[in-house]
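Encode chain A's predicted structure.
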Amino acid sequence: MIPPERILANTNSVLVYREEPYTISLFRNGRLLIGHIDEEAEASKVANHVWRTVKNMKFAEAEKSSTPI
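Encoded structure for chain A:
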């Protein structure tokens, strides 16, 4: 989960938040922009972290909305 204090903007098309020292822009179409990064290897690590975070958020949301049998 992304703490609310780190969220800079949240619209229908993009979520922008701080993942120190980077600014992450995650678009609904899957596009990912990482601000303040120069090295490709580091960008890859940060991107993988972002996708794991998104996957965990979706999993938690699905668990919350599912009804037990």
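The radius of gyration is 14 Å.
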